[in-house]
User: Fold Heavy-metal-associated domain-containing protein from Blastochloris sulfoviridis.
Amino acid sequence: MVTLNVTGMTCGGCAATVEKLIKREDAGAKVTVDLASGRVEADTGVPAETLIKAIEAAGFGATAG
Assistant:
């Protein structure tokens, strides 16, 4: 399980984009995005650093949390 704090998500579309970015790295990942808190949980074996790089490349901020 990877927990991230993502900044810059302002709508449901942003949350869906972050979910898609994670699923690009691991198609079988189970992803939960809480738009209000910016908390993202992903049941994946992909390292947090890889997910953070993908999310940041799309213009969001992300830290392991």
